[in-house]
Design goal:
Blueprint (H helix, E strand, L loop, with lengths): L1 H31 L2 H27 L14 H29 L7 H28 L3 H30 L3 H29 L5 H13 L7 E10 L2 E10 L5 H19 L3 E9 L28 H4 L9
Parallel strand pairs: 2-3
Antiparallel strand pairs: 1-2
Length: 328
């Protein structure tokens, strides 16, 4: 809940910043009549819309689970990110159309030096806000906040590229370069919009986050408990800021319910200590079989039927499979 409130606060400030920067960029365009500056200002319209959409999606995602949404409302963040990516691509297409049209009928540029200072200020603010939003979004597992951060960083880099282009125009007096820069920025914007959509669709489709799985597996290997004899059928699903982990955990068959629950709590506490409290588990406990003895590290086990042969390291390949592991 704390993470959700923090996400909302950050997204609210992002929306306010987007509105202010949108106004400043149109002031810069009014001063310069530069098409590349106009393209940057048009992208800021997207920033404002995306900021509002992101704010609403985080509000929805922060709602507690209910009977209609047993896994919570976190998927709203993926939908928000997809819509934001679509807006970014639309802005890029508009910029490309405008640059092609204006290349053959160029506008007269003026007061470029004044416009540069305004753009420089907006670029720095966008980059700082974007880095902060992306960092907090990753920490809180919020795709909406990460997408907003990426969008601000993209906007900051785009603005900085336009500043360099305007500097070259001032030096060379070749006004056609203004349209060329705007066109290249349009391509860059479309590419980054595609990446945001791709990531959001992956979340909606429950595509496996391989980097996250590797981190989970590495943490379990580094802090292995001898009573965790085997692990298989591991699944990690993201619902906005919530991580849902399914797995089958093999324990000694002779543990009673209370003892098995303690061992399971040790397992879940380890994951929560690494990834935070916004993790829920569905763990199926399996009792060990005769073939488990070969990979069981419990010493002096009175129930052992076979000698220990080797410790089986958990890897991406063997923990995702839906069967108990054994040495052949």
């Amino acid at each position: 809940m704390h993470n959700s409130k923090q996400n909302l606060r950050i997204q609210f400030f992002i929306t306010i910043i987007s509105i202010v920067l949108f106004a400043l960029k149109f002031v810069a365009y009014y001063l310069t009549h530069s098409l590349s500056v106009l393209s940057d200002a048009l992208e800021s319209i997207v920033n404002v819309l995306a900021g509002g959409i992101g704010l609403y999606s985080l509000f929805v995602a922060s709602k507690p689970r209910d009977k209609d949404h047993p896994y919570g409302h976190g998927k709203a963040e993926f939908i928000s990110a997809a819509f934001e990516g679509s807006l970014i691509i639309t802005a890029g297409l508009i910029i490309i159309v405008e640059t092609i049209t204006s290349y053959f009928s160029p506008n007269e540029l003026h007061a470029l030096d004044n416009g540069v200072w305004i753009l420089f200020a907006t670029s720095i603010i966008n980059l700082l806000a974007g880095v902060i939003a992306k960092k907090i979004g990753k920490k809180n597992n919020s795709l909406a906040l990460v997408s907003s951060g990426k969008h601000l960083i993209i906007d900051g880099i785009t603005t900085f590229g336009i500043i360099i282009g305007i500097g070259i125009v001032l030096i060379t007096n070749y006004n056609g370069l203004d349209s060329i820069i705007a066109f290249l920025m349009g391509i860059w914007i479309i590419y980054n919009g595609y990446k945001i959509i791709r990531e959001s669709i992956a979340g909606i489709m429950d595509e496996a986050d391989l980097a996250l799985l590797e981190n989970v597996i590495a943490e379990m290997n580094a802090n292995r408990n001898d009573n965790w004899i085997d692990l298989h059928n591991l699944r990690v699903i993201k619902y906005g800021p919530l991580l849902h982990i399914d797995c089958h955990l093999t324990m000694p068959w002779y543990l009673n319910v209370h003892e098995a629950h303690i061992v399971m709590d040790q397992f879940t506490d380890l994951i929560k200590s690494k990834f935070g409290d916004s993790v829920e588990f569905f763990i199926h406990i399996d009792g060990c079989m005769y073939f488990s003895c070969a990979i069981c590290c419990i010493q002096n086990c009175e129930k052992r039927q076979h000698s220990f042969q080797k410790k089986l390291d958990w890897t991406m390949e063997n923990v995702l499979s839906n069967h108990k592991h054994q040495l052949i």
